[in-house]
Design brief:
The chain is α/β, with parallel strands linked by helices and 453 residues long. It folds into two domains: 152 residues, Aspartate Aminotransferase, domain 1 (Alpha-Beta Complex), CATH 3.90.1150; 263 residues, 3-Layer(aba) Sandwich (Aspartate Aminotransferase, domain 2), CATH 3.40.640. Helix content is 36%, strand content 16%. The protein is built from twelve helices and 15 strands. The strands form three sheets. A seven-stranded mixed beta sheet has the order 4-10-9-8-7-5-6, with helices on both faces. The protein has a four-stranded mixed beta sheet with strand order 1-2-3-13. A four-stranded antiparallel beta sheet has the order 11-12-15-14, with helices on one face. Strand 5, helix 6 and strand 6 form a beta-alpha-beta unit. Helix 3 runs antiparallel to helix 9, helix 4 runs parallel beside helix 9 and helix 11 packs across helix 12. The termini are far apart. Bound molecules: pyridoxal-5'-phosphate.
């Protein structure tokens, strides 16, 4: 796919004949547990553009689910994959050594918050990074319990799923999960679980954990840590108020609980900083990352204080974790983000999108809230700005309409449109994407408010 091709370009109404054929095959052989949004069948991708198997070209506001931060098929990444795959492809970092692993670990330690010596554990995915973080927290503290947040998403394996609380369907019929997890409301000011108003609330969502949970029925000396996303992703792109994390940190210090920061979606520049928690100046004890770290290759990492990550040999490892190709790609991703000034682009383009959307919020009844940091932006759609009833059907219709017009964009939570393009996206593509999105919202808005005759 050429970078200069004109997009979006719809040459055949999607799904075209080739896409339909592949979807038929997929329907026959693939687990129906996946939750596809629309029939987009990819054939090529470059930068912030994707092409389907029938030749339609789309602007990508998904980044392969917040993964392709440096853009699809970045030349330097493709080169590294070729180079390393000609040397060796696998040799189990669990049992032997190779340089790609500690070299990447060093680079990760240098960019993660905290000016202290750190160690890194490599797995293959987000959920594995969480499993490792959780096991480490238990191992280090010898405590079993965890505090997690309602609306949080941390993965789908049993440990991670026990913390995940963003959609019923992810948990239904899978109980019993890992015991000893207590879920509490997140700092969600648009939909405060306590029906309080910020800032008069005094950040009661954190006060509640102390006064109503740890002082009433969960002995803090049995809790190993608090797991959180700095911005809830799957739960609806929820940005907590500014005082939330500093207050949570004070609470963790009070009871010596570890802060386990899930940066799987927010990390590697997504919010305009290397890690989203940096927006609040809080240093977590354990930080989990995946998605953007290896530009689409499977890699997860759990980073912690050397003092904490001192578990014994054999206590945790992974055959594939720290794959050499994924690790050289990880190194290149970090270099590309630095050298191409991608954090700066993320902040600049993100601020532009936020101000554009904030104007739309006044124009459209459907838009209840606009929020985000960097290129992690949510538009919450409601049927009524007062009752805030989620506009589920309308949200679905909007992303379908966008897809038909050449913009790949999906939802989060119940009725939030999420914008998370590759971080290298430029103003031209953003403007074209926003134009399609605005039109799609206006179609839904008109359906709800027919013109007065
Ligand atoms: C915040 C967060 N944590 C964990 C995960 C799980 O990652 P994976 O799907 O790689 O297991 C995700 C995936 O969307 C995520 O967004």
């Amino acid at each position: 796919m050429e970078e200069k091709e004109v997009i979006p370009k719809i040459v055949v109404k999607p799904p075209g004949p080739k896409a339909r054929e592949i979807i038929k095959l997929d329907d026959e052989y693939i687990s129906p547990s996946y939750s596809r949004y629309y029939p987009l069948v990819i054939s090529e991708a470059k930068g912030a553009m994707i092409k389907d198997v029938d030749g339609n070209q789309y602007i990508d506001f998904n980044a392969g689910l917040a993964v392709m931060n440096v853009g699809h098929c970045h030349n330097r990444i493709v080169e590294k994959i070729k180079e390393q795959s000609e040397k060796f492809i696998h040799y189990s970092n669990t049992d032997f050594y190779y340089p790609q692993v500690p070299e990447l670990a060093k680079m990760i330690c240098d960019i993660t918050p905290g000016n202290f010596q750190k160690n890194v554990f490599f797995g293959n995915s987000g959920t594995e990074a969480i499993e490792a973080g959780f096991k480490l927290a238990r191992w280090y503290t010898r405590r079993s319990r965890v505090i997690a947040f309602i609306g949080g998403f941390h993965g789908r394996t049993f440990g991670s799923l026990s913390f995940t609380a963003s959609k019923i369907v992810q948990r239904r019929y899978f109980f019993p999960l890992v015991p000893s997890v207590t879920h509490v409301p997140y700092g969600n000011c648009y939909r405060c679980a306590f029906k309080l108003e910020y800032p008069d609330c005094g950040i009661w969502c954190v006060g509640f954990i102390d006064e109503m949970v740890l002082q009433k029925y969960i002995p803090p000396e049995e809790v190993c840590g608090i797991i959180f996303e700095p911005i809830q992703g799957e739960g609806g792109y929820v940005v907590p108020p500014d005082e939330f994390f500093p207050k949570l940190k004070r609470l963790a210090d009070k009871y010596e609980l570890l802060l386990i920061d899930d940066e799987i979606q927010t990390g590697l520049g997504r919010t305009g900083k290397w890690f989203a928690i940096e927006h609040w100046g809080v240093v977590p004890d354990i930080l989990c990352l995946a998605k953007g770290i290896a530009s689409g290759l499977p890699l997860g990492a759990t980073v912690s204080h050397k003092r904490i990550m001192d578990w014994e040999p054999g206590s945790h490892s992974s055959t594939f974790g720290g794959n050499p190709i994924a690790c050289v790609v990880g190194q290149e991703v970090i270099k590309v983000i630095e050298e191409e000034k991608i954090l700066e682009n993320t902040t600049k383009q993100g601020n532009y999108i936020l101000s554009y959307l904030n104007e739309l919020k006044d124009k459209f009844e459907l838009i209840g809230d606009v929020r985000g940091k960097g290129l992690m932006i949510g538009i919450e759609l409601v049927l009524d700005k007062k009752t805030k009833k989620p506009a589920r059907k309308e949200t679905k219709n909007i992303i379908l309409e966008c897809f038909k017009k050449g913009l790949a964009i999906i939802t989060a939570g119940r009725s939030v449109i999420r914008i998370c393009p590759p971080l290298i996206i430029d103003r031209t593509l953003i403007d074209k994407g926003l134009e399609i999105l605005e039109k799609a919202i206006s179609i839904e808005e008109k359906k709800r408010r027919p013109p007065i005759k």
